[in-house]
Prior knowledge:
263 residues; mainly alpha; MetI-like fold; globular; ABC transporter permease
Amino acid sequence: MSRVKLLALQFLVAVTALVMWQVFSTVPIAGKVLLPPFFFSTPLDVAQQVFAWFSSGVIWKHLWITLLESLLAFTIGSVAGVLVGFWFARQPRVAAVFDPYVKMINALPRVVLAPIFTLWLGLGIWSKVALGVTLVFFVVFFNVYQGVKETSATLVDNARMLGMSERQMMRHVFWPSALSWMFSSLHTAIGFAVVGAVVGEYLGAAAGLGYLIQQAEGAFDVAGVFAGMFVLSVFVIVIDLAVSLVERRLLVWRPQPSGQPAD
Length: 263
């Protein structure tokens, strides 16, 4: 399937969903509106709200705060996850000792940690960044750890026979092996970084998309809630596209899977 055809089909799905939403929320069927606007709003109302935010400029401050928090959480959590994942994979004894503690911390519900981070770090951006880091770190950590562990034993043995040092092994053997796993986790980590920032803002903040959504919800402004969610979704897609560009640059050697859309 060509990329143009794929984009056309994706656009068609979005248009179909919006048309159905508009019809079901405005046109009575059997004397009853299936999606009452008070509870579900309408696409036109949501679009008007988004337009009002951008035309007035009120959205930019909130968007910048959420972007900053998300990028910091994504960067710190990803770097920490990669480094610790490599370390644990190359140090089996260390991994064995800390394994139950890693699983225990990962099992903690992150929402419970949000008030604690707010108490420790205040209502500024760093409490939201900390929450996002806890979400991003484990996603990247487990994937990098597994990626290094899954390195071909034959490849490792051949590299050692050629006399490669540990640093050369990391650069030419383990790092390429873990890259696919790492980028797979980064696509997921983007969403978690944004979730961490928005949830933190929702629970306590003076700015950000989470704050906008919380304010709209408190005023029973369903259009505002959906508008915030829409802006948030587009925001995540843009960051994900940036990661995809970096991935293509670094993994240019990787063969494309069958069925991959042509450029």
